[in-house]
Amino acid sequence: MGHGGGGQLSAELVEHLFAPAFGGDVLAELGDSATVTLGGARLAFSTDSYVVRPLFFPGGSIGDLAVNGTVNDLAMMGATPAYLSCGFILEEGVELATVGRVAEALGAAARAAGVVVATGDTKVVDAGHGDGIFINTAGIGLIPDGIDIRPRRAAPGDVVIVSGPIGEHGVAIMSVREGLEFGVEIVSDTAPLASLVQAMLNVCRDLHVLRDPTRGGLATSLNEIASAAGVGITLRERALPVPDSVANACAFLGLDPLYVANEGKLVAFVPPEHADEVLAAMRAHPRGRGAVAIGTCTTDHPGMVVASTGLGGTRVVDMPLGEQLPRIC
Asked: Which of 32, 183, 189, 232 is the most buried (most CB within 10 A)?
């Protein structure tokens, strides 16, 4: 299970097994989406599978995730999402009413994100060989001319900005799955982010890196970017936007919010001369009202993420080995 958690084991699986088997320069970039050229147009192309349990949770469902997760992967390349494919893998015995609710949620999320579900597939597996419903989606989107967003472009001096409170999705899933109550309901942040990215690009076409910190949380995304670009990242721990409800739940569960999944947030690496205007544009958008600058890129400790604590010390924010929260997307 650790190999599916988005941490070090996942990275090693891709690096040492899948990448050598598949090969190719396009795959080697290992961004949220691949960037390909077809008929003179630059396209972002991504696929993802969703195996979350439970199927419905505060703030969303597996249907919402299947759209928003793939749409956001396209948006992290600066693309305008356009079309999705959708594959349903159904376990024998799942109620058609449940399948209908998920399908309706998926369709509504696609309409809200401005994308068309253009093709699909359905398979049924024997009882006991699935978990109700699994969904795979793939998506394509058009990348405008002059946009070059990828992990290797992170550069010393870049300001690291996160679009809002972190950790809400992972804790929302865990609270429902385990029947935990924390005094207030914690709701998933699942949401499409393409319009937020467009607002950012309207004030700065030279965004260096965008990433939606899903599996493995913000810490994993930052470690992946630091490694890809060969830069160090220094965070200000007190600047991290962790809601009190998430902080309290994580303290109860023994979790670090930096490693808890998000489904409606992004982290951006912005040239310092454009950071203020990008931050202002994000805060003016409904999906970025809680945006905050949390750190910078540096030539120190290349490939590592370090957090400065409120007590004046520092700590290394490592890549997780496996996963803290199973099956969160």
From this structure: 32
